[in-house]
Amino acid sequence: MPYALGKNVGETEGVHFSPEPVLIEVVAPDASAASQILRSYIEDVASRYYGRQATDEEIDASLREDPSIDLALPSGVFLVARQRDALLGCAGLRILPERIGEVKRLFVTPAARGIGLGARLMGELERLARGHGLSALRLDTRHDLVESRRLYATLGYEEVPAFNDGP
């Protein structure tokens, strides 16, 4: 049965990935499902950044300092991937001037990696970007997020000079 066995979102050991479909849906970035998966995302990237498990205080601070509220229309969109009640991933699209979109918060829980969900989330973001008349997507990712970087390269994205001051 596809249920998260852990007490925290993202602890999906034991999720059976078939035949139950994984659904990708647009949700408000302040919806409960979005808040839960964004917390898992921040925990994952912050823990990598610090080289240790991020604390609840660090995760809360990061969520306050860099909220995702702009990932809602008209400035963006936020996707959540789920299998029944298990949240498996997310991705955001920020709609910028000059027909440019920025991919934000692409994340797949560790237990759901390796089944093509990241590519499915990117495909859905690309479809939504075309629907909003965007002509280019840009990505912002750190060097330590190797799964994301590998996915982007596999999908044909090319590395360009940094367009912000982030790490």
Give a short overview.
The protein is an alpha+beta fold. The chain contains four helices and five strands; from the N terminus they run βααβββαβα. It has a single domain (23-154), classed as 3-Layer(aba) Sandwich (Aminopeptidase), CATH 3.40.630.30.
Describe the protein:
By secondary structure, this protein is α+β, with helices and mostly antiparallel strands. The protein has a single domain, classed as Aminopeptidase (3-Layer(aba) Sandwich). Helix content is 32%, strand content 22%. It has 4 helices and 5 strands. Strands 1-2-3-4-5 form a 5-stranded mixed β-sheet, sandwiched between helices. The longest helix is centred in the first third of the chain and has 19 residues, at 32-50. The model is unreliable at 1-14 (pLDDT under 50).
Give the CATH H-level superfamily. Gcn5-related N-acetyltransferase (GNAT)
The number of helical segments is: 4
Kindly report the CATH topology: Aminopeptidase
Shape: globular
Report helical residue fraction: 25-40%
Count of DSSP strands? 5
Proportion in β-strands: 15-25%
- Count the domains: 1
Q: What are the low-pLDDT stretches, counting only 5+ consecutive residues below 50?
A: 1-14
Structural Rg: 15 Å
Structural class computed from helices and strand pairing: alpha+beta
Order of helices and strands: EHHEEEHEH
Major beta sheet, strand line-up: 1-2-3-4-5
What characterizes the major β-sheet?
5 strands, mixed
CATH architecture: 3-Layer(aba) Sandwich
Q: Could you report the average pLDDT, rounded to the nearest whole number? A: 86
Query: Termini separation (Å)?
Result: 39 Å
Any idea of the CATH class? Answer: Alpha Beta
